[in-house]
Amino acid sequence: MADFTGKVAIVTGGSRGIGKAIALELGKNGATVIVNYNQSADAADAVIDEIKAAGGGGMAFQADVSDAEQVDNLFKTVTKEYGQVDILVNNAGITRDNVIMMLKPDDFDAVINTNLRSAWLCSKAASRAMMKKRYGRIINITSVVGIAGNGGQTNYSASKAGMIGLTKSLAKEIASRNITVNAVAPGFIETDMTSELSEDLMKRAIEAIPLGRQGKAVDVAKAVAFLASDDAEYITGQVLVVDGGMVM
Ligand code: NAP
């Protein structure tokens, strides 16, 4: 198992679901973790408590990561408090699904801003800190729908495809500074985001997964931990799909 002792990691949207599992995976393996959240303060505090109980450290930090000023404040606070940012996981995300005729421009903007703009803002702020140290790992949580598309998710899949473009361009831009940038594309994972699907949709989704089950948040967290580890030091600009074989 990777050892993240001495590393400082920021996980956006680390209060629930996949982000929570990533924060725990990094924190329990030695990283100091900043668990960013937007609304779920108690949940974020509970993640930090769990990391501390396992011998790690860090803090919860409220910031709407689609907002440039709040992102600036997040990174200023972290660099002041801990002096460095080694790992950034751009995980915060929302859905506002509907067929295109029913979607409003606001539904498009909200999803693009929360999923894609946030990743760009945080990557920019993290790059500054990482370039100074000539070390960094940026991992973007995209989605299989950013690769394959999905009816009813034109806004969401556009944001996730955008994250893949961001991953590859930034990987090329900052590779010479020893910073890797990769993406993880989860398939159908058991979290609050997918809990409201109808039984019928859930059944059909699972039928389309060769491994025959919905993924768990920890399945994604393990892939992120790998890309953040020294074992992945020669991997950059890649999209690692974690979907039980759903899209291949
Ligand atoms: P989730 O359970 O709904 O959790 C979303 C997280 O994002 C929460 O911690 C939430 O924090 C945070 N968040 C939302 N808006 C934010 C903002 N403006 N600023 C900061 N944090 C914000 O979702 P999930 O299923 O874990 O998904 C996590 C990521 O994986 C997303 O990017 C999603 O698109 C992607 N993904 C999920 C699946 C899946 O099947 N679940 C599949 C592919 C990709 P608060 O509660 O504090 O607001």
CATH superfamily: NAD(P)-binding Rossmann-like Domain
Number of strands: 7
What's the mean pLDDT score? 97
Q: How is the CATH topology named?
A: Rossmann fold
Quick one: CATH class? Alpha Beta
Q: Kindly give the count of domains.
A: 1
In the predicted model, the low-confidence regions spanning at least 5 consecutive residues are none
General form: globular
Number of helices: 9
Strand content: 15-25%
Q: What is the radius of gyration computed over CA atoms, rounded to a whole number of angstroms?
A: 17 Å
**Strand order within the widest beta sheet:** 3-2-1-4-5-6-7
The major beta sheet can be summarized as:
7 strands, parallel
Question: Alpha-carbon distance between the termini?
Answer: 28 Å
